[in-house]
TrEMBL record:
Record-given protein name: RABL2
Alphabetized InterPro entries for the sequence: P-loop_NTPase, Small_GTP-bd, Small_GTPase
Transmembrane parts of this sequence: none
Presence of keyword Nucleotide-binding: yes
NCBIfam families: small_GTP (TIGR00231)
Origin organism lineage: Eukaryota, Ancyromonadida, Planomonadidae, Planomonas
Organism this protein belongs to: Planomonas micra
Domain of life: Eukaryota
Keywords attached to this entry: Nucleotide-binding
GO MF annotation list: GTP binding; GTPase activity
PROSITE patterns: RAB
SUPFAM superfamilies: P-loop containing nucleoside triphosphate hydrolases (SSF52540)
Start-end of Low complexity biased regions: 16-26
């Protein structure tokens, strides 16, 4: 594996970011699964790194297929284990995605506000999500605002058109990263408690398919 998380030894990992294979989604009442989607190099891994480790290394190390992180959070006084599924945005990995969506409770959809094509491609990622895991909450994220803060004056209509929460963030300096993930975790817990319509049927079908 060529990811930074996979390359770290267990001792180097911070508390709450075990980086090991996460528990099967839905296997535990107090576990939620959050997936990250977006083009390669928009900053998905750096955002998770900033949130879980309060760290940021500027080197680019594209995620190889998938990295899993476990984070221990607290929502309304209750402990919650959060599994972050950090997927690779590269085309060559895209045929792996259907399994990533299974059992997800929230999706963090990231674009790079310095590269327009990554914004245009949001609709592609969003359709893929709808096809694989319809109805879960989605948070839209404009990353890299540190490059030029004036970008925060711009209107990115993708989120407002679909009535989705939207955050301007920077993994590099940490702006809004905690706010973003706090909201994503809250929405994931909410989704787990009130699953989207059709979820039950899908779960039964998934279960039957497993046997
Ligand atoms: N200036 C700036 N650069 C950033 C920021 N976040 C990420 N980067 C840079 O963007 C590059 C890609 O970041 P990654 O987190 O690896 O991107 P990714 O979306 O995980 O990419 P894949 O794993 O290939 O899908 C790295 O060189 C980062 O240093 C940010 O907030 N500001
Ligand atoms: Mg990555």
């Amino acid at each position: 594996m060529s990811t930074e998380a996979a390359d770290r030894t267990a001792d180097e990992r911070p508390a709450g970011a075990e980086g090991e294979a996460a528990a099967a989604p839905g296997s535990n009442e107090d576990t939620v699964k959050i997936i990250l989607l977006g083009d390669s190099a928009v900053g998905k891994s750096k955002l998770v790194e900033r949130f879980l480790m309060d760290d940021y290394q500027p080197q680019q190390l594209s995620t190889y297929a998938l990295t899993l992180f476990r984070h221990n959070a607290e929502v309304e006084g209750k402990p919650i284990a959060v599994d972050f599924w950090d997927t690779a945005g590269q085309e060559r990995f895209q045929n792996l995605h259907p399994s990533y969506f299974h059992g997800a409770h929230c999706c963090v959809l990231v674009f790079d506000c310095t590269r327009k094509v990554t914004y245009t491609n949001l609709s592609k990622w969003y359709s893929e999500l709808q096809e694989n895991r319809y109805g879960i909450p989605v948070v839209v994220v404009a990353n890299k605002i540190d490059v030029d803060y004036r970008v925060t004056r711009k209107n990115f209509a993708f989120a407002s058109k679909r009535n989705l929460p939207f955050f301007f963030v920077s993994a590099s300096d940490g702006t809004n990263v905690v706010q973003l993930f706090t909201e994503a975790i809250r929405l994931a817990v909410d989704c787990k408690q009130n699953p989207p319509e059709g979820d039950f049927v899908q779960d039964v079908l998934d279960l039957l398919g497993d046997k």
